[in-house]
Amino acid sequence: MIAHKIELINKPSLVDDVEKGIINYLVRNKFKPGDALPREIELAESMGVSRSVIREALSRLKMLGMLKATKRKGLEVSNPDILIGLDRVIIPGILDRETMEDLFELRLILEMGIAEILFIRKTPEDIAKLREILKKERSSKTRAISIPSEVEFHGKLYEIAGNATLKRMQSILWPVFDFLEKKEIEKGEQPHLSEVSHSMLVDIIERGTPPEYQDAIKTHLRVHLERIFKEGGESI
After folding, report:
1. Angle formed by the axes of helices 14-28 and 51-63, nearest 10°
2. What is the pTM of this model?
3. Helices marked H in the chain — which ranges?
4. Angle at the Cα of 42 (from 52 to 53), degrees rounded to 5?
5. For 112-166, what is each residue's pLDDT tens digit?
6. CB atoms < 10 A from the CB of 222, how many?
7. Considering Cα of 121, then 123, then 125, then 127, what sign does the dihedral take?
């Protein structure tokens, strides 16, 4: 029996080194999206490794979206989706309570954070579109909002802000909120009620200020967080 714990040595593999070497090569030579890479055999000869090692390193970079295969040029540099793969691992049914709380709070942070840019970029046409979305929502008396309405309304806010990455993040996070909503319904909970409705948010966007919007969106979303993740409540 070994008396002392053996310390693991984190030694990168040859493929890891080649992957980093290729990235450094692209950076040093100022490759841009659309630029073609040298052939596998040229990379292998230049780096002194086998083509199989080069192929595996290139495959990793393709999976990350940094490279793509084309008929015309072969492998070329691509503009990667920085959120690639995230939508494949956010599976509500297997996420624990703490992770889903974190994701919900992330949504709150994102929507509060776009306030300044939202007010800079809004147009009368944007306000009119938000009003159209409101007309399709359910009873204003209960302020109960369906998931599709939530997606459309808040998706439009991200669209107005003009940040494609944030809008993509929002689409990735929606399955979590849909899952939690259905869980509440299964437990007999009533639809979410908020002191701040979508209509109130639109009024603030049209005539208010960024700080007022931040306070309002915090209240609008906080009710979801508080109802779903009750202190000491049941595990989802």
Report:
1. 70
2. 0.67
3. 14-28, 40-47, 51-63, 86-89, 97-113, 115-121, 124-135, 147-161, 164-186, 198-207, 210-228
4. 15
5. 889 999 999 999 999 999 999 988 875 445 445 566 777 788 889 999 999 888 8
6. 16
7. positive
The mean-pLDDT minimum among 1-10, 71-80, 128-137, 161-170 falls in 1-10
What is the length of the chain?
236
Average of per-residue pLDDT across 190-209: 85
To the nearest 10°, report the CA torsion of 222, 228, 229, 233.
140
Q: Residues 23, 26, 29, 32: is their CA dihedral positive or negative?
A: negative
The span from the CA of 86 to the CA of 84, in Å, is 6
Phi, psi (degrees; rounded to nearest 5) at 140: -75, -15
Mean pLDDT, rounded, of the chain: 82
Residue 68 β-bridge partners: 76
Query: How far from 62 is each of 28, 77, 142, CA to CA, in Å?
Result: 19, 9, 49
Q: Domains of the chain (ranges plus CATH)?
A: 14-77 (1.10.10.10), 86-228 (1.20.120.530)
Q: Are strands 74-77 and 67-70 parallel, antiparallel or unpaired?
A: antiparallel
Kindly report the number of other CB atoms within 10 A of residue 117's CB atom: 15
With a CB cutoff of 8 Å and minimum separation 6, the contacts of 87 are: 171, 172
Chain centre to alpha carbon of residue 67: 21
| Residue whose token pair is 């009003």 | 131
**Alpha carbon separation from 30 to 18, 118, 193 (Å, rounded):** 18, 34, 53
